[in-house]
Amino acid sequence: MRNKLEFFGKKHIGKLIASALLAAALTLTVTDLFTITARADAPYKTYTVDGYGAVAETQTAYLPYETITKIDEETLNGPTDFKLMPDGTMYILDSGNARVVVSDLSGNLIKTFGEGTLVSPRGIYVTRDHITYIADRDAKSIFVFDEEGNLIHTYTRPNVPMYGETQDFLPLKVIVNDAGTIYVICESNTNGVVEISPVDNGTFLGYFGTNSTNSSLINIIWRAILTDEQRAKMRSNIPSTPDNMAIDDKGIIYTVTRGEGDGTVKRLNIAGVNMLEASDYDTVPAAIAVGNHDNCFVVSQQGFIYEYNNEGELLFVFGGKDDGQLRIGLSTKAEAIQVGLDDKIYVLDSDKAQIQIYEPTEFTNYLHSALYLFSKGRYEESKEPLSKVLEMNNLFDYANKAMGKALYKEEDYANALKYAKLSKDLDTYSDAFWEIRNNWLRHNLSAIVLIIIALLILKFAIKRLDKKKNILDKPRALWRSFKNIKLVKELGYMFYFVRHPIDGCYGIKWENRVSLLSSNIILVLVMAFYVINKYFCGFMFKTVREGSFDVFSDVGMILIAMGLVVGCNYLMCTINDGEGKLKHIYSSFIYSFAPYVILMPFIFVLSHVVTYNEEFFVSFGRFCMVVWIAVLVVISIREINNYTVSETAKIIFLTVFTILIVCLIAFILYVLWAQVFDFVQSVAREVVYKIGS
Fold this sequence. Notes:
Blueprint: H1 2-40, E1 46-49, E2 55-58, E3 62-68, E4 70-71, E5 74-75, E6 81-84, E7 89-94, E8 99-104, E9 109-113, E10 121-126, E11 132-136, E12 141-145, E13 151-155, E14 171-176, E15 182-186, E16 193-197, E17 203-208, H2 217-225, H3 228-233, E18 244-247, E19 253-256, E20 265-268, E21 285-290, E22 296-300, E23 304-308, E24 314-319, E25 334-339, E26 345-349, E27 354-360, H4 362-375, H5 379-392, H6 397-409, H7 413-423, H8 426-469, H9 473-483, H10 486-499, H11 501-510, H12 516-536, H13 551-575, H14 582-592, H15 594-607, H16 615-641, H17 645-692
Helix pairs in contact: 4-5, 5-6, 6-7, 6-8, 7-8, 10-11, 10-12, 11-14, 11-16, 12-14, 12-15, 13-14, 13-17, 14-16, 15-16
């Protein structure tokens, strides 16, 4: 009995232990789940830009990790800049208190300095030796402190004529290269970044990275005809002052400037030439920082963070402006950005007086690995992290683009073509296609030559037989009877019309050489070729997203455009003593588009066989086709209505003006109808609500 009790006791204890272990495991699992959820729930969405230039949502690239609100018991007051050091220390420019606060990454205070010296500090830079440079606007000086926080040097306004005799020295931001050369952004100094050598207590070297001015031809002409007083009231066309800058380990300087368009983000070499083309940017950038993988980060004043690769391609956009709910990861007024060795991003918010920290997700870590390996030419190694990225998001364009380039370097042209097509990478697609085409020609050129020779021999043999035995008499008779069909003759008239438009218009107007049926058939052919070319032309010339179709709106657009042009032209010709009937004007307009029907099939085929370097042939073909159509339209208006050249020009102008008036009236009617519809809809809802209540 005792043994039995002991057996059941042991069995019961075993169950208890098993239950306890299971409960512990479940608790850990649930805890992990809650932890992951807490870390994965970002208060913002992450976006990227696809190969078509469209913004697309993607996986979360960075998660809010932590917020530093105080340095021990020290509260920050309007901080404007900070510097993150490789050893984990942070130098924070506590501008409201006119001091520098040094802490570790956990927010523990190490020291403060600068009290009593600084007046209105705006920018900070710290060298590897912990020498601190402070740009103080109101003091009009660059203060230099040693590692202990002792003032060791002060740089003031360069006293040389080349600096500008009336130019003030109001430093806002400062960086220093390994040679000790100081680069300063000064308020209202549109000449560029001030470059100062430490030699002889500060030698002015000149201006660096000056922004260009944007002056269109219209503005130049307009300024030329205005008086001095009118020109004085116009907006000055002077270069913009950079807003912020950063420097990498190689001494390359990065700048951000608001209102510069494509020059908002720049990477400047030693000569001050921009080497970066960032086509996607924020209009109000606050700061820029260099990453660890040949990438860079820009933060806007509203807290949006942009990550670019070394070619200026946008990888991610995330973050945003806080709406007052004080949510982690959102900013009120971002002032500075830094990147740690562990790829964490640190953003300084001056309004909140805190530092937001973001950590990269697994997706981003894989992308960074691929980014770094690819930039170093290690294409084979970059394929593994790229594959991981594509497993998580097979539509992430940059990964597809990098994979295509890596496969091209390995001479796997077929797969490189596939990935380049997915990412809309025209350069890689063209290069891979050229290689594939070259290989195909090498293997098939002899066969092509033999086929051409065989066809020529066959043609010669048929001609000889036909000469002796008339074997082509029946086919010729059938062809003549086919050409004599009325509709076929009317359709074939377009080949005569494009070569002899004046006589062709005479045939339309007086000889009834065409009909409404043939004109409508040509219009259908124009619409069909337009749709086919738009959606199925060569990949390098396609302007619509792969797989997207909107045929009905395309056809409707052509019909509406043709109806507007013909209707408005007929109206203007009728008012201005034109001799053309509506049928003649319509048919002549349609037959003027005959070059489109004749040339577009050849251009379509050509678009599938040329590479990027040979696109001139397609572009030139399209240009010739458009010019040919325009000439035929002008001649048809003149000949159908028996106008002079000046009268023709007048009618064309009036037709365009009438089209614009009709479009404006249509837009006004659309807006009014939309308002009426909204009113009726709101009344109906109110009636339904009253009945229901």
